[in-house]
Design brief:
Order of helices and strands: HHHHHHHHHHHHH
Number of domains: 1
Helix content: over 70%
Shape: globular
Length: 315
């Protein structure tokens, strides 16, 4: 068995990001060779293939390389009804804050992602969108980040592990507009797994957030005029975009207060529960030997993201 440590996690994430970038290119290439216009390529096929090839294959490679059991890398244990309710509540209250962060970053980086997702949701049957845009990302991104990568950080303090995992989760999206709110989600999801000792917690939070956003977009297009939706996704002027920030900020502040209350209840409930179940330490027995977290692959990964972002901004 290969030793799990931050250096391995960093290298694995660096190689996974490189692989996923090339995977996205190679998935579309056969269709382009056949002379198809990129706009005509089936979004459902692309959205379905990418998580399987770009995310799940690296996870399987990690499992084969480390020879660790699944229950150690990604513990899939049932969680209590109380935890389900608390996680769903926290996921709900995280979203207004994420929306504010997204709106703020879109002022500088644009909002192409929302436009692409909205177009996909409108064109495809709802159940197909739920599978490809809600279920697949929730399962495969969580196995990769809160499974493989986080398993390498179990002997690091949870605060550092959560921040680095959030950073990696943001980078995995390879989009500056998505990076900041993905970072926030990544930190929260790490704590959900930490306290429940189960990746089911982050599966649940991730899926519920994706599903609520897809449902909101789907029903917005049915209930609201097209011009109102277009002006929200792509404001015509910087001033129009900035005018949306203040009400979003106010809502985000109150939602984060509610999230903090639920998180306090969640953390204390699980501390008591873990003590009663005689669960001690981190996810696994703690190795007190020094753990290097900032390795060459860590900095290489950050550099790749910065270069990729700059290239997209100025190309």
């Amino acid at each position: 068995m290969k030793t799990l440590n931050p250096a391995l996690g960093n290298t694995f994430m660096f190689l996974t990001v490189l692989f996923s970038v090339f995977a996205a290119f190679f998935i579309e290439t056969p269709f382009l060779i056949m002379g198809m216009d990129p706009a005509d390529i089936d979004d459902t096929l692309i959205n379905g293939l990418f998580p399987l090839i770009g995310l799940f294959l690296p996870f399987l490679a990690f499992m084969a390389m480390t020879k660790r059991p699944l229950k150690e890398v990604a513990p899939i244990k049932p969680i209590s009804f109380a935890n389900v309710a608390l996680i769903l509540g926290m996921a709900l209250f995280l979203q207004p804050a994420a929306l504010f962060v997204s709106e703020l970053s879109s002022v500088f980086f644009g909002n192409d992602v929302s436009e692409t997702i909205s177009g996909f949701v409108v064109k495809q049957p709802f159940h197909i969108v739920v599978i490809t845009s809600c279920l697949f990302p929730a399962v495969f991104e969580e196995l990769l980040t809160r499974g493989a990568v986080l398993s390498c950080y179990r002997n690091v303090g949870v605060k550092k592990a959560a921040v680095i995992n959030g950073l990696f989760f943001g980078i995995l999206h390879m989009n500056p507009e998505q990076f900041f709110y993905a970072f926030m989600y990544g930190v929260a999801f790490t704590y959900f797994v930490y306290y429940t000792r189960s990746i089911v917690a982050s599966f649940l939070a991730h899926f519920s957030i994706n599903f609520s956003q897809v449902a909101l977009v789907s029903y917005s297009y049915k209930l609201l005029p097209q011009e109102d939706i277009d002006s929200y996704i792509n404001p015509t002027t910087p001033g129009e975009g900035l005018s949306l920030l203040f009400p979003s900020f106010v809502i985000a502040v109150f939602s984060m207060l509610a999230f903090s209350v639920l998180f306090y209840i969640f953390a204390n409930y699980n501390k008591r529960k873990n003590a009663e179940d005689d669960i001690t330490g981190d996810f696994a027995p703690i190795d007190r030997s020094p753990q290097r977290t900032f390795t060459w692959s860590f900095f290489a990964l950050v550099a790749v993201f910065i270069i990729f972002t700059l290239f997209n901004l100025f190309s």
